[in-house]
Amino acid sequence: MVTVQVGKDITIYYASGTNYHGLAAHIFGSGTRIGFVSNMSYSIEQNVEVYHAPGRRYGWGIKGGAHDVSVHLDGLWVATGALALFTTEANKTGALTAFALGASGTDQGIAFSGCRLGTYDGEFTADGWATEVVDIPALVAL
Q1: Domain ranges in the chain?
Q2: Does the predicted TM-score (pTM) go above 0.85?
Q3: How many CB atoms lie within 10 A of CB 112?
């Protein structure tokens, strides 16, 4: 049983596959609600650099670098039966299956596609609470 703090917890949705062209509506509309997080952070790194032509002191332009998206879920309370989604991914070897992940707060939502499980830490407390901390690299933020 998950206790939801209305207005404080962020709802997490899961959908199988990369889901690039389904956009965020597909994840929230047909994805599976798997639980809640107390804190979510994400970063989108463009790795832009100033380009200096040979022999020039001032920058001539800006060039794009590698594009990296990462998601950090802290205090994930997983709905009944959905814990297997993360533990199955954590126990796989070789190529991991890509999935899409959506997060919806009280005001807005964001979705990530091409996700793969990076780091998974679980904690079970004496009073019966089970929380997870998950780091997820993704290909696209929608």
Answers
A1: 10-141
A2: no
A3: 25
**CA–CA dist 89, 65 (Å, integer):** 29
DSSP SS3 for 116: coil
Q: Are 21 and 36 in contact (CB under 8 A)?
A: no
CB 118 within 8 A of CB 19: no
pLDDT one-digit tens code per residue, 6-23: 556 788 888 876 666 655
* 131 contact partners, CB below 8 Å, separation of at least 6: 75, 76, 77, 122, 123, 125
**Any idea what DSSP says for residue 95?**
S
Cα–Cα distance for residue pair 27/34, rounded to 1 Å: 12
Token pair listed for 17: 């596959």
Q: What is the pLDDT of residues 31-88, one digit of tens each?
A: 778 888 888 889 999 888 888 888 888 888 888 888 899 999 888 877 766 666 767 7
CATH of domain 10-141: 2.30.110
In terms of Cα–Cα distance, which of 13, 30, 8 is closest to 109?
A: 13
Residue 109: both structure tokens together: 């939502």
Confirm if 79 and 35 have CB atoms less than 8 A apart.
yes
